[in-house]
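Below is a filled-in request sheet from our internal design queue. Each sheet records the structural input a requester submitted and the sequence that came back. We keep these sheets so that new team members can see what a complete request looks like end to end.

REQUESTER: design group, bay 2
PRIORITY: normal
MODE: inverse folding
CHAIN LENGTH: 197
BACKBONE (tokenized):
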């Protein structure tokens, strides 16, 4: 059983999908730790309700990006984490962090990469831009994380149709329901299996 840490910043619906998948889609790994960069993240409640250990690391308390990443690494390594999942973790991680965990960090992004991705594209903003552009199909992507924002190898993608009456909020919800919450647990399982041992 691989030890998974999930890094979160907000509502944590993707974390919930992972929790709910344990023992079903996700059988080769177990969520051992949830780390938030925001003490008010509702995701922390979801973790506590599921009996999962939590930690909060605040960038402003660490004083610098370097110290923030060092603190994250210390916590992850102390907990013997095999796989890190960014599930709505709204901060960029630099090469200092990503190179420490090659092919061991996953991210879920709410578009079909390479559309609507990279620095500045996160959360609702991604769906606003998809609607503004007028694409008729969007979706979600799970990918490995490297030093390029949203630039790591793609593991899985799922398409979702856009409807004429969509608002960013309605589209966000459909992408989550039809794509993110399905793809992320499946991808986590695939990667846990590939880690072997
Ligand atoms: C999700 O839609 C996730 O794909 C997105 O933020 C939302 C978090 O929701 N992540 C990004 O935009 C990262 N670039 P959640 O907290 O309910 O899982």
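RETURNED SEQUENCE:
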């Amino acid at each position: 059983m691989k030890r998974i840490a999930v890094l979160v910043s907000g509502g944590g619906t993707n974390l919930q999908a992972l929790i709910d998948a344990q023992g079903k889609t996700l059988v080769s790994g177990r969520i051992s730790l949830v780390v938030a960069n925001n003490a008010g993240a509702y995701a922390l409640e979801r973790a506590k309700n599921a009996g999962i250990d939590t930690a909060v690391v605040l960038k402003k308390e660490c004083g610098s990006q370097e110290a923030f990443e060092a603190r994250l690494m210390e916590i992850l390594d102390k907990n013997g984490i095999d796989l890190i999942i960014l599930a709505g973790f709204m901060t960029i991680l630099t090469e200092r962090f990503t190179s420490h965990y090659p092919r061991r960090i996953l991210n879920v992004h709410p578009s079909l990469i390479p559309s609507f991705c990279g620095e500045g594209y996160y959360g609702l903003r991604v769906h606003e831009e998809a609607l503004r552009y007028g694409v008729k199909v969007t979706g979600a992507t799970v990918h490995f994380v490297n030093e390029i924002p949203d630039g790591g190898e793609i593991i899985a993608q799922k398409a979702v149709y856009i409807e004429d009456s969509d608002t960013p909020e309605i589209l966000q919800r459909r992408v989550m329901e039809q794509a993110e919450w399905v793809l992320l647990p499946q991808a986590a399982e695939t990667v846990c299996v590939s880690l072997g041992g």
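SHEET NOTES:
- The chain is about 40% helix and 20% strand.
- Helices lie at 13-21, 42-49, 59-62, 65-78, 95-98, 124-133, 168-195.
FILED BY: M.R.
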